[in-house]
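In this section we walk through a basic example: taking a raw amino acid sequence and producing a predicted 3D structure, encoded as discrete structure tokens. The instruction is simple. Fold the sequence below.
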Amino acid sequence: MLLADDFFLIGHDDRDGRSRLSQRAMEFGLAGAMLGELILEQRILVEGPRLRVINHDPPSDPLAHTNLATIVAELQHREVRTWLLFLGRTAVEAVGRRLARVGLVEETQVRRLLRSETRWLATDVNLPAGRVVRLRRLITGFEPMRVADTTLAGLAEATGLTGHVLWERDPAGTRRLQQAISTLPPPLRDLILQVESAVGDSVMSQRG
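The resulting token sequence is shown next.
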């Protein structure tokens, strides 16, 4: 499963499709996951607060292809925060549609007081729960995590989603997670730090 797909399923309630995060945290998390897919595909690098394209070959996944093409077309914009904001605006819809194309979620309209809201409901309610359990076992267990798994766990930590994954704060699990993140390749560590910073700034601006 692709990185942003996993983050999407873990980040939404398996029964009603509600986000487990604030809108901005979900947007930044998904945008970070989509950039993470391009790093894992060795198409871009993140170096501190900036990114650069290292391979223009289109990825096989259509959404990743579109994201890379957009970045290539706007090479003057190298700030990671800029791309988190830009990709985040349509991230929920983009990843939701990717999951819908393979039959894992269905788009539905939920009527609110003055408007309707789009939600993406899992076609199998066991799938999101299973992805949560899988990540929990990786964080709290003793099996080595793959780079993609560690990146997913790092993005969950950066956005505040770890509390849902672990249920309650587990000091040993937290230490294991932080140690695993510290072993990631620098571009992925820097990406996680940029997502964490963006989420933190968003929270502060709302309080202000």
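Looking at the output, two observations stand out. DSSP finds ten helices and four strands in the chain. The chain has one domain: 3-203. In the next section we compare this with other chains.
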